[in-house]
Amino acid sequence: MSFNTELVGSTVEMLVLKLLSERAMYGYEIIQIVNERTEGAFNWKEGTLYPVLHRLEGKGYLHTEWQVGDSGKKRKYYKLTTKGMSHATEKAAEWQVFAQSVNSVMCQPA
Q: What is the mean pLDDT of the chain?
């Protein structure tokens, strides 16, 4: 299934915040996890993710650190700051209300 890009675009920040609230990750890892957890319904590419990561970092929500991975390759890891954790919590609560509101309309019989 293919989704409207505006619909997907409005959820990217929230999904990134959710994943980074679980643990620090590098960019390609975030892409892989999103694509796996959505069973391919979201087919994120670098162009979807990296502008959001840079914006979140610029707002002080992320801290970055270069680390050498298991393969010996250097990777830039993203981790939520305290401010980022608070923002992630706010976004999750906002999503819950939004999703319930949409479902209250969409899931009613005609």
A: 92
